[in-house]
Amino acid sequence: VDDGWGWHRPGGGNPQKFWFVGYYVHWMLARKVVPGVLRDCSQAYLLTGDDQYAHKAALVLWQLAQYYPGYAYEKQSRRGTEIDPSYRGKLAYHTWETSTVDAAALAYDAVFPYLEDDAALQEMTGQSAGEIKEYIENRMLREMARLITDGSSTIQGNYGSHQSSLLILAAVLG
Fold first, then answer.
1. What are all long-range contacts of 153-159, with beta carbons under 8 Å and residues at least 24 apart?
2. Closest CA to 25 of 87, 71, 82
3. Whole-model pTM above 0.85?
4. Could you read off the pLDDT tens digit of each residue along the chain, which spans 174 residues?
5. Which among 119, 125, 145, 148 is positioned nearest to 61, based on CA atoms?
């Protein structure tokens, strides 16, 4: 059984594992769900003005901010644990992490005004609107900016992509 950390074929002789769960999570969560939900819900809010979409995007942003500082691709991926322990990233590896940055920053920008009215999120988190904004900005958006600029290569896309992500973060954070 693959518990999320890979499966060894009994008697296979191959030291590397099969990462069925990790592969699925990587493609669904890091590449499809998080960027997709953030993009789709925030855009639906902007297009329709329907608060339910803003709430869903804000909830995903808050939840992502809760865990973002602890994500370490080099410790949580097949690539990092079996092949190259210096292969950096957060939710995704360093190049694709720019997709997470762009999706999170643009979604936050879209729903930022709504956070004052999101009583359900305030009640669920036990935080005021100002505290929710500070939480998302400090634990995730500013952390993303730091990881682009600190030389660690934790977020380093193909030439131009992390620079573009940094500009989006700067515009969103003012």
1. 153/88, 153/94, 154/88, 154/89, 154/90, 154/94, 154/97, 155/89, 155/90, 155/94, 155/97, 155/98, 155/101, 156/88, 156/94, 156/95, 157/94, 157/95, 157/96, 157/97, 157/98, 158/95
2. 71
3. yes
4. 778 788 888 877 777 888 888 888 777 777 777 888 999 999 999 999 999 999 999 999 999 999 999 999 888 888 888 888 888 999 888 898 999 999 999 999 999 999 999 999 999 999 999 999 999 999 999 999 999 999 999 999 999 999 999 999 999 999
5. 125
Backbone angles phi, psi at 89, to 5 degrees: 160, -175
Angle CA(122)–CA(125)–CA(126) in degrees, nearest 5? 75
Residue 89: strand pairing partners:
93
Query: Which residue reads 């950096």 in tokens?
Result: 88
What residue type is assigned to position 111 of the chain? V
Q: Let me know: does 70 contact 140? Beta carbons within 8 Å.
A: no
The helix/strand count (H/E) of the chain reads as: 10, 0
DSSP character string of 42-88: HHHHHHH--HHHHHHHHHHHHHHHHHGGG--HHHHSHIIIII-TT--
